[in-house]
Amino acid sequence: MSELRLLQGNEACVEGALAAGMRFFAGYPITPSTEIAERCALRLPQKGGKFIQMEDELASIAAVIGASVAGVKAMTATSGPGFSLMQENIGYASLAEIPCVIVNVQRCGPSSGLPTSPAQGDYMQARWGTHGDHPIIAISPSTVQEAYTLMIRCFNLSEKYRVPVIFLMDEIVGHLREGTEFPAAESLELYERVSSPVMGIDKHCYQVEEGEWAPRLNPFGRGERYNITGLIHDEGGFPTNNKATARALISRLLDKIDRNTEDICDAREYRMEDAEIAVVCYGGTVRSAMAAVERARAEGARVGMFRPVTVWPFPEARLRAWLPQLKGLIVAEHNHGQMLLEVERVARRPARMIGRVNGTLIPPDEIYAAIMEDNV
Amino acid sequence: MREYSDLIYKYTRVDHLPHIWCAGCGNGILTRDVAVAFERLKLEREKTVVVSGIGCSSRAAGYLDVNTIHTTHGRALAFATGIKLANPELHVVVITGDGDCAAIGGNHLIHAARRNIDLTAIVFNNNTYGMTGGQYSPTTPTGDKGTTAPYGNIDRAFDIARLAESSGASYTARGTAYHTLETIQAIERGILHKGFSLIDCYSVCPTYYGRKNKKGSAVDMLIWQRDHGVPRARYDALSPEERQGKFPVGILQQNDYPEFIEQYQRIIDGCETEQERSAFIHD
């Protein structure tokens, strides 16, 4: 049976993670994500899981990857400064193909910035924060309900593609309280990591089966003896400088995401059917945009909202499908134009940017005014 | 005729030999000490995990035929913490270096020690950053040279074993590349010890540290270890005057402090009891 609760976004994401089977959390306190660590500390031992407060974010993500290597679904949560510190090991998880989920409840930056204020300034960092070409998935919720349901999707995608998934929340959704429905456990679709039936795969632990995109690395302790490294490695998991091997590995890592965008990418459209203007936004900003679209519609404007849910990779096919009917594109995000670059790349035309970095929300009025200005 | 000993066949990935270490490096000796300790303890290789960071020391993991994970610079203990917590049945051994665990990973070292989590850290301490070509490290003695200390190192050196002890490690020991028997025993007991154990093993780096500081050949450096390191029992019998310039080899201290995972399991068990009780009330 489903259950209705009044929860904060940060709390809901923990409940979603638990429903997904998350049983390990390592983290370090940081505003505005701390409630996630607090709830994990309370809830995990109740489920037989483990919580640990590490000495910093570098250690937190490392412990999470370690737990995942031992076969447990694991996550951490942080905000901008901590997210910056985690980047090196996010790259490690990308290359070594260790599933893990990183929640970033964005706050206003740069540096220590405005710790308790909303922003969406880590959009590009979520994609390109760690060095080198690497695969990544990022998902952004707009409601407390989605903080629950999309968290499950984060774990599913992470386990399926063996890739770190960033849950790109923002302070707006993180600290918002809304009624949240916990679906019945049996109604949830959970993806469990595929393991290899073959024992003693020492030599080819990174070999990818026909028709699959990621190796079936079994948890340490299951019966094999193999090696994991952050160096470019061969199918046996050992470091190599071989150019062909390096090229094949990096190509496969990128392809496993790029060639599965239909499965991975998700977007929501609101009143787009006959829209000539689209407001593109994600996360907490969606709430202001919907109010603005409603108001402008009431005054006859043909406007809709396009909202990437999977923010990386950008759901470009979905946006492209609307382009022929669109005369105006407005991007509303809490920064100085980051997703704007993706929208303009896909649309091949300039878009109007509504952004701000001053610690306050973008009010519906501001988006409404832009719509009406474009609606001539 | 077999090319290698049975020990090598059992505990190393012979396909990946020869190793990358320089001629005369102490790391090969220390890696063998680890393998002998595994053999004596009859550790199930499939249940054994060796975690390493980055640097010369950390290449040891890849040669050992157990589950091995070569992680990022300084973070081996943090990775190991996650592995051990997620599956406490695994024997988790960390092989790290002086730069890896006392400089970039210093914070993880003191906190792993403070938690007294059941991990065994084996430090291949060669007093330098060998992989990058001989820069001074947190254990380079004051005054000694490195490529980044061309006029002599003005930093004071860490004693990693004392650092771990003062941070709460319940077992610390000293090994050297020369004192094989004592080092094997120290590793063995460290693995058996419940809690955080650290074996600070002096390696030798004739290629960089030795050459920069005119320490002679690899053999000369091992002879220095022989002449200055004294097995613990004998060291204890020395008078304060006789101890001058010497250091003890073997177990330095062993204590019975509460272990982190055991403590955490009590919390989990308490939650289960609590749930059973509340379920009973609701019935």
List the helices and strands and how they pair.
The complex is a heterodimer of chains A (376) and B (283).
Chain A lengths: L2 E6 H12 L3 E4 L6 H10 L6 E4 L3 H13 L4 E5 L1 H17 L3 E7 L16 H6 L8 E3 L4 H18 L2 E7 H5 L1 E6 L44 E3 L13 H16 L2 H4 L2 E4 L6 E4 L4 H14 L4 E6 L1 E3 L3 H7 L5 E6 L5 H9 L4 E4 L8 H11 L2
Parallel strand pairs in A: 2-3, 2-4, 4-5, 5-7, 6-7, 11-12, 11-14, 14-15
Antiparallel strand pairs in A: 1-8, 6-13, 10-12
Chain B lengths: L5 H6 L15 H15 L6 E5 L7 H4 L3 E4 L5 H11 L4 E7 H5 L3 H10 L4 E6 L2 E2 L5 E2 L23 H8 L3 E6 L3 H13 L4 E6 L3 H7 L5 H11 E3 H6 L9 E8 L5 H23 L1
Parallel strand pairs in B: 1-2, 1-3, 3-4, 4-8, 7-8, 9-10
Antiparallel strand pairs in B: 5-6, 7-10
Helix pairs in contact in B: 2-8, 6-7
Structure characterization notes:
Chain A has 376 residues and is of the alpha/beta class. Chain A has two domains: 3-187, 3-Layer(aba) Sandwich (Rossmann fold); 268-374, Rossmann fold. Helix content of chain A is 38%, strand content 19%. In chain A, the strands form three sheets. Chain A has a seven-stranded mixed sheet with strand order 3-2-4-5-7-6-13, with helices on both faces. Chain A has a five-stranded mixed sheet with strand order 10-12-11-14-15, with helices on both faces. Chain A has a two-stranded antiparallel ribbon with strand order 1-8. In chain A, helix 4 links the parallel strand 4 and strand 5 (100-106). The longest helix of chain A is centred in the middle third of the chain and has 18 residues, at 144-161. Chain A is globular and about 65 Å long. Chain B has 283 residues and is an alpha/beta fold. Chain B has a single domain (6-257), classed as Rossmann fold, CATH 3.40.50. Chain B has twelve helices and ten strands. Chain B has helices at 6-11, 27-41, 60-63, 76-86, 98-102, 106-115, 160-167, 180-192, 206-212, 218-228, 232-237, 260-282, and strands spanning 48-52, 67-70, 91-97, 120-125, 128-129, 135-136, 171-176, 197-202, 229-231, 247-254. In chain B, the strands form two sheets. Chain B has an eight-stranded mixed sheet with strand order 2-1-3-4-8-7-10-9, with helices on both faces.
